[in-house]
Structures are given as C-alpha cells and as structure tokens.
Amino acid sequence: MGLVVQKYGGSSVADAEGIKRVAKRIVDAKKSGHRVVVVVSAMGDTTDELIDLAQQVSPIPAGREFDMLLTAGERISMALLAMAIKNLGHEAQSFTGSQAGVITDSVHNKARIIDVTPGRIRTALDEGNIAIVAGFQGVSQDKKDITTLGRGGSDTTAVALAAALEAEVCEIYTDVDGVFTADPRVVKKARKINRISFEDMLELASSGSKVLLHRCVEYARRYNIPIHVRSSFSGLPGTWVSNEPQGNQPMEQAIISGVAHDTSEAKVTVVGVPDKPGEAATIFRAIADAQINIDMVVQNVSAASTGLTDISFTLPKTEGRKAIQALEQTKEAIGFESLRYDDQIAKISLVGAGMKTNPGVTAGFFEALANAGVNIELISTSEIRISVVTRADDVGEAVRAVHSAFGLDSESDEAVVYGGTGR
User: Fold this and answer.
1) b or e along 148-160 (b: 16 or more beta carbons within 10 Å of the residue's beta carbon)?
2) Which of 118, 371, 386, 407 is 20 to 30 A distant from 24 in Cα terms?
3) What's the pLDDT at 1?
4) 334: containing domain
5) Comparing C-alpha atoms, which of 94, 114, 110 is closest to residue 102?
6) What confidence tens digit (pLDDT) does each residue in 68-101 have?
7) What order of strands is seen across the sheet that includes strand 3-8?
8) 3: buried, middle or exposed (CB in 10 Å: 19+, 13-18, 0-12)?
C-alpha cells in the first residue's frame, strides 16, 4: 500500500455531518494501509459568500487582501476535518498551502504553482499522521504573500502534491459518481465514463465540464499522475483519468467521449478593424498585457468596399470589463469603429478521438443543433473537439440534442447529483 492523495470538494464538507462522513472515509483509507494526504476545499458555498461580502465592502477589492479573505474558507475546513479525524482515534495535522510548501507566482486571485516543497507533509507522514492541506492557496515566491489559484484551484493543489510526493493516485471526491458524458444537472440520461484519456479530459475540462479543472488535468498529464474521480457520498467506482487506453474500439472509428457546455464566457466583437497586417496583433497584445485568457477567435472576411473587418473572441465574463477598458485604449492606434460586448452566450462542445478523420461527426453535430432549432454564432475545431457558440437560453436543449444524436444517452438509472447548490 502506497501513498494516496485525496481531495474533497466543498459539497462533500458542506456541514458537520459531511465532515464526519469524509473523516471516516479518510480513516478507512488509513486503516487499509495507505499513507494519506488530504486536500480540502472550503465548506459548501463559503467562498461565494466571502466574495459577496467583499464586494459589499469594496466593489473592486485589492488582490492581496482578497486572497487573504478567501483562503479563510479552506483553513476552516482543514481544521474541522483534522478534529473529526482525531475524534475517530487517528492523528491528523492540518497545514495551510504555504505550510505545505505550495510556492506560486505573485499574480493574486489566479496564481500559478511554481514549485512544491512538501517537507512538513513528509515529516507528518513519517510520524504516522494523516496530513490535511488547505486547497486553492499557496505563497508567492518573491513577496511571501498568500495567494489563491483561482476557482477550482483545490484540484490543482491535490495533483501538484501528488506529483511532489510521488503518490500512486490522486483521488478527487465530488458530488457525482465520476465523469459523465454530459453534465448530469442538464442531461438526466448522461452516462458515466469508466476510463478517459488525459487528452479527452483536457478538452472536456477546457470546454466547460466542471468535474475537473483544466489546469489540474494538465498537471496530471505532465507528471503522469492517475486521477480517480469519485463521489464522497457513495462507494461506487468512479472514473479513471490516465494514459491507459479506453478499451477495445473499432479501428478508425470516432470515439465520442462526451458533450460539455460553458455559460461562464462572454463575446467581444471589435467592429470595423482595418484589414491590414498587425492590427489583430495589436488587439490581442492589449488583451495579453491585461493578463486575460481568450478562447475562440473568429475574423470575418473584410468588405471589399471599405477594407474593414470584424474580429470576435470569447473570454471569461469576469474579465469582460477589463478587456473593454484595455481595447478602448488602443482605439486611436488601431482605428476600429466600435466594441460590442455580449455575455448571454453559451459554448457547446463535442469531444472525442478520431473526429477529424470522420466527416460524419461534424455533419451529425450540426444537424442535431439544427433539428433543435439552435442558431450558431461562432465555430472552432481541433482534432478531438468541435465547439460552437449559441445563445445562453438554448444551452440545455442544445446539449441534450447533441447528446442523444451521438447515442450517449444511458438506458439505466438517471445520473445522481448528491449535493451542492451549483453556485
């Protein structure tokens, strides 16, 4: 029996009963012979409540103090969980991200991990203790300030610790029984995937699947750390994410992994851009300098009479105001006519291997959307993904239509969502 890293999400430790249930599961893993490191999120909606409170005090809170506030949620969870474990007769020690050796850059609210030096965690394990680590947080390398890793950052903390400690597996416990072919909250007939590759999981995560964070999967792929996604509310086997093959599949046949959707993005259109070299570079340099990540990009064919074109791209809604401000500062240099901002959009993505060499996949995807009466605004493709932007109001119907069209509906019991408010 080797070392296992377990991560428990906010819905799993939402209240005292949940914390005691998780503590028993951790102790059971310890009794089975494993050395156990646990990463825990804030209880329930604690992080959202802290964000709401901060915005009531200050519309634009300072990054450093905002991180100081948000990390309080995980510190509460780790301490309570350690108490619950000790109450079951086992020794546990809780550690903040900085105490666990999670070293990050200095970008507040969305820091990236630079290194993990888990000396104190190893000491705790060598003494026979269970180590409990606050997820979502670290300490900056230069200023030694507390930082947060962005939403879903506890997953990244868990995988990073698993890599640093050379764990056998990183178990991610959540409020569903694994990775499904679609969000069970939207598609009741979604089917659980037993095994999925890192590549397919990366595409699902970046396309809006909320089970695993994109950065977490990328970290796991880089260090070849198997991830086991399970529910803390049941004893059912979950989904394995690894480099292992998904099983016997017909040669040259497209393997559809699932349908993902994302309603957290907005669309910016730069109207009337002079169609000449360098203008697009200036636009996206301004966005990059503002530390904003973009997703889909589409440039229209320029009008012959005016020599002007429109450039549209999607980005997180939370970055919308910053993007508009950054682009406004380049208006005189570029000479574009206006900016349009639309946050009532949704991204629908079909993910699977072998899609590029199977023309019927693309046709089937668009036919399913057409039959559901869903209009398409933007299109983006890769070798294993097709994504479109639609109206946000159409997202449920669109996901269900595509899911059914590709035979992903389960014939057995409906997928179960055990907890969480979905905030």
Assistant:
1) bbebbbbbbbbbb
2) 118
3) 64
4) 252-409
5) 114
6) 999 999 999 999 999 999 999 999 999 999 999 9
7) 92-95, 130-134, 35-40, 3-8, 169-174, 227-231, 239-242, 195-197
8) middle
Do 218 and 264 lie in a common domain?
A: no
Work out the average pLDDT over 122-129: 96
* CATH number reported for the structural domain that contains residue 235 in this entry: 3.40.1160.10
Question: What is the C-alpha R_g of the chain?
Answer: 23
User: Residues, the chain, total?
Assistant: 423
**Buried-exposed string 206-237: b where 16+ CB fall within 10 A, e elsewhere:** bbbbbbbbbbbbbbbbeeebbbbbbbbbeeee
CB contact set of 107 (below 8 Å; sequence gap of 6+) = 147, 291
The pTM of this model reads: 0.84
Are 186 and 261 within one domain?
no
Is 190 within 8 Å of 180 (Cβ atoms)? yes
Give yes or no: residues 153 and 234 share one domain. yes
CA distances (Å), 114 to each of 108, 164, 202, in order?
Answer: 14, 12, 21
From CA 269, how far away is CA 267, in angstroms rounded? 7
- With bands split at pLDDT 50, 70 and 90, how would you rate the model's confidence at 381? confident
CA dihedral 405, 413, 198, 365 (to 10 degrees): 10
Bridge-based pairing state of the strands 92-95 and 130-134 = parallel
pLDDT one-digit tens code per residue, 190-216? 999 999 999 999 989 888 888 888 889
Parallel/antiparallel/unpaired status of strands 3-8 and 102-104 = unpaired
Could you say which of 184, 216, 242 is where a domain stops? 242
Quote the number of domains for the chain: 2
Burial of residue 390 (CB within 10 Å: 0-12, 13-18, 19+) is: buried
pLDDT band, residue 176 (cuts 50/70/90):
confident
Amino acid identity for residue 286 in this structure:
A
- Percent of the chain at pLDDT > 90 equals 70
Pairing of strands 265-274, 227-231: unpaired
